[in-house]
What does this fold into?
Amino acid sequence: MIRQRVVLITGANGEVGHGLIEKLAAEPDPPFIVALDLNELAHDLRPLVNRMVIGDILDTKLLETLTTEYEIDTIYHLAALLSTSSEFNPETAHRVNVQGTVNLLKLSAEQSASRGVPVRFLYASSIAVYGMPDIATKQAAGPVDEDRFLNPITMYGCNKLYCEHLGRYYAAHYQQLAATRAVGVDFRCVRFPGLISAVTVPTGGTSDYAPEMLHAAAQGKKSYAAFVREDTTIPFMAMPDGIKALLLLARVPRENLTRFVYNIASFSRSALQLAAMVQDAFPDTAITFKPSDARQGIVDSWPADINDSAARKDWGWVPDFDAERAFNEYLLPTIKGRYASADSD
Ligand code: AKB
It folds into this structure.
């Protein structure tokens, strides 16, 4: 039986899934997209995918069915419980974030072996893998490269860091003692900064104060209280650049890659600077700062800036948007259109 060759997207209904599906479906020769998510796909995305599977990455029976039905060429593994949500239920987060990833890596290893060609496995990691020991070190560190300060303080960060290692293991060492060496999974990973989308609002993350203040203002709310201090600084990226990075990394020939895990950076701004940009555009919303100790501690442990020179060198990564372009050419025009059309619905 000839099986359909497909691209599988987990967490397809999440923020990154939205942008990725739109971009893949708009390609001149779009792939056959199988979208997997716990929830039904948003209405506007439904026609853009070939198959929607409502299910759990912990359901190994479901994953087995998908492998028998399809020849999985590429996986974008986006499903995860984010950093704040994970702290409320760390063991559940561990199951979803780690066991879910193992299930998909195993599926990829089996498909790679049966096809004799490595499955490309794109993994969405995060700046949460870092753990800066204190604010003074964070301020003095400058742009942090991939291999320093890897002492995450959240379950999510621990999960992401460990799964980066699992990806490397399934790529280079899986079944290393077997009589015939397995075809390794083609594991490729980006560490996302805080992503800001004009069309979706995140839930359960700790970088959420930035998209939340923007969406609250665009919705015409009278006020928004950010859960961090004014001086809080971490790296951010406009969603289209995050999608661009995933697609670029997916397409680069493996021999160009010198590592499995790459930082990608775009702009770092303090919460106060972001609030000023939002208030310039939406002067009627008052943005205030009411730090929550717990969530503040998490963002303080993330670097202020990251070094993405390896991605730039190996696969030609350059973001399209700095902070000003992100606001003026993507976030503000798109978000104003979005809420204006919601008003008129
Ligand atoms: C979160 O805040 O948990 C995510 C992330 C930085 O990975 N947005």
Summary: The chain has a mean pLDDT of 96. Residues 82-83, 126-128, 156, 192, 194, 205-207 surround 2-amino-3-ketobutyric acid (CB under 6 Å). DSSP finds twelve helices and twelve strands in the chain. Residues 80-195+238-265+302-322 form a domain with the Rossmann fold fold (CATH 3.40.50.720).
